[in-house]
Write a structure and sequence with these properties.
alpha+beta, 4 helices
């Protein structure tokens, strides 16, 4: 007669495999969430750096006179010292820009491209990060099972997008 194995000895292989699967899930979903957030910061930083780090950059206003092909343009009037007036600068055509209006802008160094400045420009520059926070919150809630952290991320992302909507 073969002696029966104790219940704890039979459960050890199952516990070990479930721990490995749990670690694999946490590692893979954590990696996905971090990559989403890095992509959001990367997408935002291309514009945000010009709006946030304005020291030494040309600042002024642009009166939008023409829009078409995804861009708007108009004459640039300097506000900062060392900045020169220009007949035409280009700003991205978005919901934040309308023909006939004047906007505070920062010029990208070495180009005729302008980026909105001020609170509306800062919030608008970080919109990709807000979207990334919302997307990553789903991964954190479902894949990592961290619902409180996910709700916090979703709240911050939603707050950022809502503030940008009303500021623009």
């Amino acid at each position: 007669m073969i002696p029966a194995m104790p219940a704890s000895a039979a459960a050890r292989p199952r516990q070990a495999s479930s721990a490995v699967l749990r670690f694999g899930r946490v590692a893979s979903m954590g990696t996905v969430a971090v990559l989403i957030l890095i992509a959001g910061v990367w997408a935002s930083w291309g514009t945000a750096q010009h709006v946030l780090l304005t020291k030494g950059r040309e600042q002024g206003t642009v009166e939008v006179t023409r829009c078409g092909g995804g861009t708007c343009s108009g004459p640039y009037s300097p506000v900062s010292a060392g900045s020169q007036a220009r007949e035409r600068v280009v700003i991205e055509d978005s919901v934040a820009v309308a023909k006939g209006r004047t906007y505070s802008v920062v010029l990208k160094p070495g180009s005729g491209e302008a980026v909105r400045s001020g609170p509306a420009g800062v919030l608008y520059a970080w919109v990709p990060l807000g979207g990334a926070l919302l997307l990553a919150s789903v991964v954190v809630a479902g894949g990592l099972r961290r619902t409180r952290v996910a709700w916090g991320m979703a709240g911050v992302g939603d707050g950022l997008l809502t503030a940008a909507f009303f500021a623009v």
